[in-house]
């Protein structure tokens, strides 16, 4: 008997209840990469997270950002967790982010390459900001980055709790199966 379930990533897995036990079958999916938004401006943090179905924990996820012309605009690495999850925060903008347009993030883990696109808008107009305004904006930017970092930790904590609940559900399915087969 097959039972389908969806995890927090909306990845369908099947539980095969046969041979006196319930076995969670691994989903056969390609890697997933997401960003927290679809549009970014200079200085915005880009929260990149993803999932690899069959992770190799000894290899990091290599990330490359390409501009709208296909030129390399940035690079990063993220350690992959044993459950296949990874995340990293990059800042939009910099010397190689020369123009507004569609940018691509490519992530590579082992032999798998996967990507996602987003819109980047370069600040091209000078609006007469004073040095005092710049200091205030820098302080606000720092505060917001700290909030984003704190929220990222909270999200990770919630994801861990969901993983624990999924494990409990798996254990309960086994108990129910044993109860049904014992009758």
From TrEMBL:
Keywords, comma-separated and alphabetical: Coiled coil
The UniProt record lists the keyword Coiled coil: yes
Highest taxon of source: Archaea
Coiled-coil region list: 134-175
The protein, known as: MG2 domain protein
Originating organism: Marine Group I thaumarchaeote SCGC AAA799-D11
Lineage: Archaea, Nitrososphaerota, Marine Group I
């Amino acid at each position: 008997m097959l039972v389908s379930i969806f995890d927090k990533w909306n990845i369908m897995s099947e539980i095969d209840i046969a041979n006196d036990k319930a076995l969670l079958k691994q989903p056969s999916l390609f890697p997933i990469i997401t960003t927290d938004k679809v549009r970014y401006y200079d200085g915005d943090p880009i929260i990149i997270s993803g999932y690899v179905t069959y992770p190799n924990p000894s290899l990091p996820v290599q990330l490359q950002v390409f501009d709208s012309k296909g030129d390399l605009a940035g690079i990063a690495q993220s350690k992959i967790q044993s459950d296949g999850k990874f995340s990293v925060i990059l800042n939009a903008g910099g010397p190689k982010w020369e123009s507004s347009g569609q940018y691509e993030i490519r992530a590579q883990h082992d032999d798998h390459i996967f990507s996602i696109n987003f819109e980047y808008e370069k600040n091209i107009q000078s609006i007469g900001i004073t040095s005092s305004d710049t200091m205030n904006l820098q302080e606000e930017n720092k505060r917001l980055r700290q909030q984003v970092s704190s929220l990222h930790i909270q999200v990770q904590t919630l994801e861990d709790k969901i993983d624990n609940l999924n494990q409990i559900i798996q254990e309960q399915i086994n108990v129910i199966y044993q109860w049904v087969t014992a009758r």
